Amino acid sequence: MERVTIVGPSGSGKSTLARELGKTFGLPVFHMDQLFFKPGWVERTRPELKEAVNKLILENEHWVIEGNYSQTLPSRMAQSTHVIFLDYPRHIYVYRVVKRLLMTYGRVREDMAPGCPERIDTAFLTYVWAFKSKRRDKLMAIVQSNLSDQSELIIFKHPSECEHYIKGLRKCDIKKRNETNATS
After folding, report:
1. Do residues 152 and 81 touch, judged by C-beta distance below 8 A?
2. Domain for residue 184, yes or no?
3. How many whole angstroms separate alpha carbon 73 and alpha carbon 50?
4. Domain region containing 159
5. Which CATH number covers residue 136?
6. What is the per-residue pLDDT across 121-143, written as a single tens digit (0 to 9) for each?
7. What is the enclosing helix (H) or strand (E) of 175?
8. pTM for the full model?
């Protein structure tokens, strides 16, 4: 894996997966929420966000970028070697969002922009609940229409599929390192 885009609903584990892939493959990890928000939950304009993402892609040969932000997907996907869609059931990601809110309320999560502490936001909770019925198909269409010939699309329907995949990647990585060390 060299350039990975991870998408899916809030609470699906995009940030966690991004950190895991970054650690496993030695890739820098970027969170779209950190690029989109300024301190105090101030949003960047679409042109500012597109510029920040394009600059990030130009300045980094390898990366993991997690987050949807559909206006930036075409440029990210054009460069991605892998696109991972976390397409989990609603009850899983809604539960995770509520749990995260309760556990991190008032604090800034590591995948969030500085100065943006976790808060109760009914508009966000409504967005999360409606993802499956109102946003999922649009996101999938954007992903499929912008997928490059050099990119592999991986869709996980349940966290256990993702966990199994990660375990397999770790085994391959350990085997590869052992083979490299043995020939050195």
Report:
1. yes
2. no
3. 9
4. 3-179
5. 3.40.50.300
6. 899 999 999 999 999 999 999 99
7. helix 159-183
8. 0.91
